[in-house]
Structures are given as structure tokens and as C-alpha cells.
Automatic annotation (TrEMBL):
Protein name as catalogued: DNA 3'-5' helicase
Domain UvrD-like helicase ATP-binding residue range list: 3-293
Annotated signal sequence range: none
GO biological process: recombinational repair
Gene Ontology molecular function: 3'-5' DNA helicase activity; ATP binding; DNA binding; hydrolase activity
EC top class, as a word: isomerase
UniProt: ATP binding residues: 24-31
SUPFAM superfamilies (UniProt xref): P-loop containing nucleoside triphosphate hydrolases
Amino acid sequence: MITLDDDQKKAIYSSREKSLLVLAPPGAGKTLVMAKRIEFLIRTKAIRSPYKILGLTFSNSAADEMKKRVIKEVSGSKGRVHITNFHSFAYSVLKAYGNRAIIKRNFSVLGELDSEGLIIDKLGISGSFSLSKYDERRKAAQKMLDRYKIWKIERILKLNGDYCDKKFDKHFEAALNAFKDELRNINALDFDHILYYSYILLKNNENILNYYRSVFQYILVDEFQDTNPIQFKLLELLANGIDSSLPNRPVFILADPNQGIYEFQGANPKNIEDLLNTFNIEKIELKGDHRFGSDGIKKLIDEISNFIEEKTLSLSPSQSDKPVYCIFDNKKDEAHYIHEKIKEFKDDVKLHEIAILSPQGYNLDIIKKRLNKEEYIFLPDFKGIEIEKKYKSLFNELKKTAGIKGCLEEIIIDITKKIGIEIDNDLLQILINIARKYDNKVSMMLQDKILLFSNEVLLEINWGDILRKEIKNKIFLSTIHSAKGLEFQKVIVCGIESGSLPFFVSCNKCNEHGLDENSWMESLKLLNVGVSRAKLELLISSSNSRRRFKTHPSCVLKPFYRHLEILNTTLL
């Protein structure tokens, strides 16, 4: 029933033995290609039972959706595919064999919020964080924490043991060791060490590695541009092994280098280049458009992608249907205009087909005040840290109930009533749905249910995926990071001004020394992700002031003005 273009067919129906790198720009149908590739391998019996296909996606919710799709379309595929994300795969390895890495297998996942609090304590700066954010001691403590995060990414996620912070190296080393000791004491692992210890475990135990390699005979990876070096090394181990008698496993990699937006989290754009050297891989580029109903949006996205790749402008602009770009005196006027546009949009589409996105969450604050609270869902962060903050008391109370008997769903409802959380809250209902899954496992002890439930919630990388699927008739307010992988009929991308895109640190560098190419490219890729969420209509907006600060339209957007219908041009 689905019409595939020639490039999609070439990727889907290639020989099972081939390793492929499929470059897929927005709207090229890469999710369909991944699902159809799995279907092809199963239907042609290229992967025979009891062997399996391993799929690694950006988020668990995307993995679940992919599994449902394949199981529905391909009879007999249940149990033949294992689709998850890198963190969840690493978690499952440690749950099975963690004792070989001096880790108890019943460890809990330490969320981002608790992890940061613990390292702040080990750095000896917790007292400073109780001060006003304008206090100089608080500012100094924040700078130290930011430097530590960069140092830890280099040491742990990039496996760069030689990386050194000239000022704090010994202090950071001692703090990290104390942090690891505390993790062992509380029997927990943070996100980074889940990846790190699983890599060390497989690297140092070839028999365990070969077990996984014998089970998974074909490996697919989605959103490869957002992988970090340790994830690349995990893939290399699973595919090529270590001096193994087992043959190399073919890999099927989907990526869009022009939408790599997680370098601040350790993602390495060079991973795509390194694929060509590490694997005997063939490159295929998808060029078709299976998303956009607007020629103007498609032209803008193609031009941004071309500029990222070639540093040149080459496409002629659309003669009509250009996305609108509005420039306002202040945030109040910007929010008023957006509110009026939302009223127009509501006549054309359902609320859940509307998204208001921004590079930084604070740009959405004044817009939230203008909207009816019942009309929108707000997700400011691409990870579950906001879930942790919102329901910290719920998870704390859950841990205290581990010794009693009962139904996990009922216990969660009782706790929420006790601590005053509304039962009809959208996010809470999703958490309750997850809890029901564990209640169906009647033989499982409540303590185990609580542990696995909490770990699953924290291991979900992208809550935007879940909310988009579960919550209907609400406008999606989000950072661009949270909206990655999602699409909407109508999108407003606001806050496209200096200090927001690029972020203020980069803009300060621009004022003093000129914006470095890396900061420019990071901002350009983020803009690319934001505008490519729109299928039919796109509005972009900037403000010339924010609170007490003067701003100006983002320099990142200026090369593409000819692809936009610009309003308030006198302000340029």
C-alpha cells in the first residue's frame, strides 16, 4: 500500500550482507525505511530464528513504536527483533552480567537531577548553590560545575583519558572517584556510567561479547549523528568483535549530519566519517520528500542543509508559500502576535497539530501566560529531568513502600493523593500506564516492580515522543531539542535572536572575537531541526529586546532571508 521511491528501495532491498550508511534529510522517510528494512530481512528469512535483529533508536518510545509496527506488519516477527536505545541496551547488559564489572545487577538508575546534586556535593560547592544566582560565589561554583561536565564528557563519554583541565584536574579526578564510590554505596549508576561500564564489560569479557554477537546477527542504528564515541565503540564491539572467530555483523546506519544537535552532550559528528573507515560500508542518500506540503518550507530546509554542507547558497527561493518571519520590538509584542496566530491555526487544525518551539525554554514563558493552561503541554528539556523535578516526592515515597504488598498503580494513586498531585494530570496518567505494565507481571515482587518502573521512567531519553503520542488536543510548547523527531502541521519557532540562537555565551564570543565555526554550525543545525518540524505552515519570530537586554535578529538566520517573507523590515 506504500509507494517507495528508488532511493528508499535501494536501501531497503539491498543484500543482507551489505553494511549501509543511509543519509536521510528531514521528510525523506527514514523511519519507514528502517521498518521496511527489518520487514525485508524477516520476510526473506535473511535472519532465521533463533537469531535476532538489534535496532538502536534515539528513544525507547520510538523503539516501542517501531516494534509495534514491525510485529503488526510481519507475521512471526514477535521475538525476532530487539529494538531499544543505547542506554537501555547498556542497562540490560549490566542487569544480566553486571557482577562481572563489580556492579550489583539490581542497581537503580540515578536520574540527572540526583546525579548533579551528588557531584555538586563531591566537588564541595553545595553551599554556594544555596546562594542567590547573582552572588559571585554562586557564579564561581556554576563555572566550576560547567567545567566539570566538559571534563567528564571527555573522560567518560569520549574515552579521552589524557584530557586535562589545567586548573581543576586533580580536584575533578578526586570528585569523580568519590562520586563512583558513592554510586557503589547506594547501588546506583548514572546515565554516563551505564554506557561506560557496559562498554568495559563487553571489551574485557569476550565470551559475553560473543554471546550478544551470536544472538544479534544484524544491527540497525537510527539518528547516528547524535551518538557519542563510547556508543560508537559499543557498536564496533557488537559488529566486529575482538579477534573473534565469529564473522562481522552487517550494520544499517541512518543519519542526518545536518541535524546533529547534541555535541554539548558528547555527540561526535566525526562518528559518521569514522563509519567509513571502521566498517566496509556503502553510502546511500535519500532525496525524496514525504513530509512537507509547503514548497517554501522545503526550499528553506534544503538551503540550510546545503549551507551546512557546502558553505554556499545555491537554491532559488520559492515564488510563493514562503515561511513568514516577524521581528518585534519586545517579547510582549512577540507573544501577543503568536497568541493571535494560534487563534487562526485552531480554526484549521487540531491543537496537537500545533507546536511553538524555541532554542531556549525561557522564550516560551510569556507565551504560556497568554494561553489557557488547559490548552498546552510544556516540555522544556529533551531528557526526563523535568519529570524528576515534578515527581521527585512521588519517587521518594515509592521507595519507602518497597516492603509492603499491593498493586503498583494503586500505590502511585494513593501517594499522589497524599502529596496533593492531581490524578488527571497528563504526565501522571502516562506514568500510571507504565506502572500497569509491571502490575501485569503478577509473579514479580513489588520491590522489583518499583525498581524497574523507576528505571524505565529515567531511561526514557525523549519524553517529547511519548507526550506527542499520548496527549491529544493540546498545543506542544517545547525547546527545539525536545521536538526532535516530531512533526506538526503548523509550527511557530520563536526566540530566533542573539543570546538565544546562538546561546548567550557564543554571542559574547562573537562580540569580542567573532563567532567560531563550531558555534555557528551548532546553531545552524538547531535551526534546521526546528524549522523542519513543520509540514504545512511555518512562522519564525525574533525580538529586539528581552527583559532588560537589547537583542537583534539572529545572524544564523540572515543568510536565508530571501527564502522568507519578512514582516516589520524597518526594524532590520
